[in-house]
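[job 4471] stage=fold_predict status=RUNNING
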Amino acid sequence: MPAEDAPAPRPAPGRPKDLEKGNAILEAARRLFTTHGYDGASMDQIAAEAGVSKLTVYSHYGDKEALFSEVVKSFCEQQLPASLFEALPELPLRERLLGIGRAFFAMISSPEAVAGHRILCSPRMAASHLPALFWDVGPQRVQDAVSRLLRQRVDAGELAIDDIPRAAAQFLTLLKGEPHARMLFGCCANLKHAEAERHLEATVDMFLRAYEAR
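[job 4471] inference complete, writing C-alpha cells
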C-alpha cells in the first residue's frame, strides 16, 4: 500500500468531527479525482484544495480508498436521494419510472460519473478491489432502491415480475443504453434534452411492455 494510502491514527472515540471540513474534503476529492484520476490525486493535494491539513483528511476518512468510497456514496446520495424512491402510489407507474429514469440518466451523464467510470475501467483499477467497493456504495445501492420500488408496485398488482432484482438491473442497464456508451467512448459530450427524453421514454415503455400486469 502506498505511503499516502496508509491510515493515520483515528481520533479518540466520541470526538466530534467538523462537518464543514468533512464536506470541503469530499468536494475537493471529487474535483481532483475527476480531473486527475485516482492515482493522480494525492492526499496532499486534496488537503490543500480543501484548505485543511493532511492529518485532518485522514482523521475524517481514514485513508484514500475510504475517501474515494465516500465520494462515490455521497455523489450518488446527492443525485439520487432516498426520497426519489418513495412509494408514491398515487403517481401513475409510467410517470414514476420516468422520474427515476431522468434522475438516473442525469447522474450517469455528469462529468464526474463519466470520469469515475473511466477511472475504474483503467487496467490498474480493474485489477484492484476498488471497482467492487465502488459497486457496493454506488450501483448496488441504486439497484436495491429500484428493487424496493418495483416490489411495491408488484404488490399493488401493477407489475408482474418473478425476479425483481434482475428486473431492476435490466431497467438501469436499459436506461444507460447506447447514449451512455457513446459518452464513455468520447463520441459525444451529452445528449440534447429532446433526444435524451426520447431515449428514456422508449426505455420505460419497453420495460412496461415486458413487466406490466395484463
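[job 4471] summary: Residues 8-16 have pLDDT under 50 and may be disordered.
[job 4471] exit 0
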